[in-house]
Each structure stands twice: as structure tokens, then as C-alpha cells.
Amino acid sequence: MKPNRSIPDAQVIPVLTYPDVRRAVAWLEAAFGFQERVRIGEAHRAQLRFGAGAVIVADDGGERRAPEPGAGVTHSVMVRIDDARAHCERARAAGARIVLEPADFEYGERQYQAEDLAGHRWTFSQTLADVEPERWGGITVAPPDGRRQPK
What we know:
The protein is an alpha/beta fold. It is built from 2 helices and 8 strands, in the order E-H-E-E-E-E-H-E-E-E. The relative contact order is 0.16.
């Protein structure tokens, strides 16, 4: 990939819609530890980073709409972190609605889920152990290097 300072360098970049971009940026920084990277207009869009990852916060407009309360979960953004319990408490203190308290799973992750001020669902995941997917019922189709396994 060619570098471009006008876009985050992550390969997958979720774009999430909020009714108030500036309020969302401040909240995501306080609650989840994101850092604003680029501001586009005062209230149009913002690029945020979290480690090697990124998310874009976009305003309501055109076809873009923030989640509707009671409409169910249409998506979730997963973010890898170092300490799920501490991160959960930070999010709770900032007003996040904790949907799932930190829990340990057989696939080697401790995860919690939170809903942000606009209703977006977030899953935060702390790695506890390196576990082969076959140990919990998964099937490795392609290893991390991207080459397919022989059948």
C-alpha cells in the first residue's frame, strides 16, 4: 500500500455515524482511549486512532444515520486491548452502557461489550492465551500469513 497522510494507515477502517461528531470524539477519547488524528470540518468527520487501528466518526447526513434505539444490533467494532477489566471500568466511568461484563472465553480471550453514547456496540478483547481454533470448535482455513491450508 502506498502511504497517504490524509487517511489512517490501517487496512480496515470502520466508519461510524453519530448525531454530533465533536461530542462523539470527546466521548470516545474519554471512555475508550481513542486519539483524534485528523479533523475534517468542524462537525463533518474525524479520524481517530487506537494503536495500529483506526475508526472514522461521521456526521448524520445523506444516507448515513446513527443507530436507532431499540432497533437491534446491526454491527460491532472489536478492539484489542491489554486489560479488559481496567478498560471496562474506564468506559463505565465515562457513561458507557456495559452490555457484557468482562468474561473469559475458551478461545483465549477476555472480552467485554459496551454501547457508546450513540448506540454503537463495541467489543473489547484482551488476549489471555494463544489457542488453536480447533481446541474450541473452530476450523483454521488460512493461517495468519494468508496462505490457504491444503485440504
